[in-house]
Specification:
GTP binds at residues 87-94, 133-137, 187-190. By secondary structure, the protein is of the alpha+beta class. Helix content is 34%, strand content 25%. Bound molecules: guanosine-5'-diphosphate and magnesium ion (MG). Magnesium ion binds next to α5.
């Protein structure tokens, strides 16, 4: 990476800091162990030590930057699973989200739930689950294309009276391609013409064999209308999450993924994010794709102002200079200076790229950074 300090380089190549400094000194460069190395210096040093290095463009620096303050694994803690519901139109995605929210959020926090935040969290047996409540397909595909996947588990909804449809298959394919585990919710089980066995055999035929038929796919029968099976569905999700051992380090700088964004009157650019790692605080300096700023306000999924978002928490962030795109990664850095430097590098990089290719840089390219 370009932003590599002398001692970090030394550690990476397994030589002492002294040796590195000596070589640079031989080249007429006076450096101390904390100085950043230039790209050409890194190449010379790599040559000298006979190691291969890969210098990456500034758009790729995010993980590296976020790793600055990475704290050892002992700080890793369990984090809630993040869920996206997908399925054919009218099979009950929205109803299911609403029902889960209604039954579970009400349990957690009495009072008005009005604001649409694009994602919300519920609690089941003292464990949190985050749901992405945003037009399923697009968000999911976009983010996958950008490698910024927000989702840990996909719920595929299939109406028990309608069975597998084209968008069901599409959803299955998306989840499979993204290697995201799925749970199948057979919905509308309350309907007189509901036929869950039909759904099961259709999916079994496609290679998604139910667990109770000796396969590996969890099927849960639910009704978004009556609420039947919802607890079962949440338990199944938590079980799957447990198997996945989802972990994060709440002590490091935040890395979050944007799932929705807009320009709001009086607020300016706002971004709904889900934190992937670390903790995002009010006051943090953040960069997000081409945009950057300082976190001025954070709202939780109930529209309430809060001070921070931990791993897998959803929230709305106010304070960016422009509206970022969905799928982009927001990273908190130690200082405004760092943020501005990286923002400048990115802008420059994109400009160069546009010049050199004389084609527009696609968002995918910009997003392909993590
Ligand atoms: P989406 O397009 O997948 O988001 O589907 P919706 O949630 O909008 O539901 C489509 C229609 O199916 C609506 O009229 C819902 O009221 C109805 N619906 C959804 N879930 C159920 C259910 O469990 N039982 C019954 N009877 N109707 C349902
Ligand atoms: Mg819907």
């Amino acid at each position: 990476p370009e932003d590599c300090r002398v001692y970090e380089f030394a550690e990476k190549v397994g030589h002492s800091t002294g040796e590195v400094i000596k070589i640079l000194f031989g080249l007429g460069k006076m450096v101390t162990k904390n100085d950043f190395l230039e790209k050409d210096e890194i190449e010379i040093l790599a040559d000298e030590f006979g190691v291969e290095v890969e210098t990456i463009n500034p758009l790729d620096e995010l993980d590296y930057v976020a790793a600055y303050d990475a704290i050892p694994d002992e700080y890793l803690e369990e984090r809630p699973p993040v869920i996206t519901i997908m399925g054919h139109v009218d099979h009950g995605k929205t109803s299911l989200l609403d029902k889960i929210r209604e039954t579970k959020v009400a349990e957690r926090e009495a009072g008005g739930i009005t604001q649409h935040v694009g994602a919300y969290q519920v609690e089941k047996d003292g464990k949190k689950i985050t749901f992405i409540d945003t037009p399923g397909h697009e968000a999911f595909t976009e983010m996958r294309a950008r490698g910024a996947q927000a989702t840990d588990i996909v719920i595929i909804v299939v109406a028990a009276d309608d069975g597998v449809k084209p968008q069901t298959i599409e959803a299955l394919n998306h989840a499979k391609a993204a290697e995201v585990p799925m749970v199948i919710a057979i919905n509308k089980i309350d309907k007189p013409d509901a036929n869950p066995d039909m759904v099961k055999s259709q999916l079994a035929e496609l290679g998604y064999m139910p667990v109770d038929w000796g396969g590996e796919y969890e099927f849960v029968e639910v009704s978004a209308k009556t609420g039947q099976g919802i607890d079962d569905l949440l338990e199944t999700i938590l079980l799957q999450a447990e198997i996945m051992e989802l972990k994060a380090n709440p002590k490091r700088n935040a890395k979050a993924v944007v799932i929705e964004s807009s320009l709001e009157k009086g607020r300016g650019p706002v971004a709904t994010v889900i934190v992937k790692n670390g903790t995002l605080h009010v006051g943090d300096h953040v960069i997000c794709g081409r945009t950057f700023g300082r976190v001025r306000t954070i709202l939780n999924d109930l529209g309430k102002q809060i001070k921070e978002l931990g791993p897998s928490d959803p929230g709305v962030v106010v304070g960016l200079n422009e509206v970022p795109d969905a799928g982009e990664i927001m990273v908190a850095m130690d200082s405004d200076k760092q943020v501005r430097e990286l923002a400048q590098k990115r802008a420059e990089y994109l400009r160069q790229k546009e010049l050199s290719k004389s084609t527009k840089v696609t968002l995918d390219e910009l997003g392909n950074l993590i």
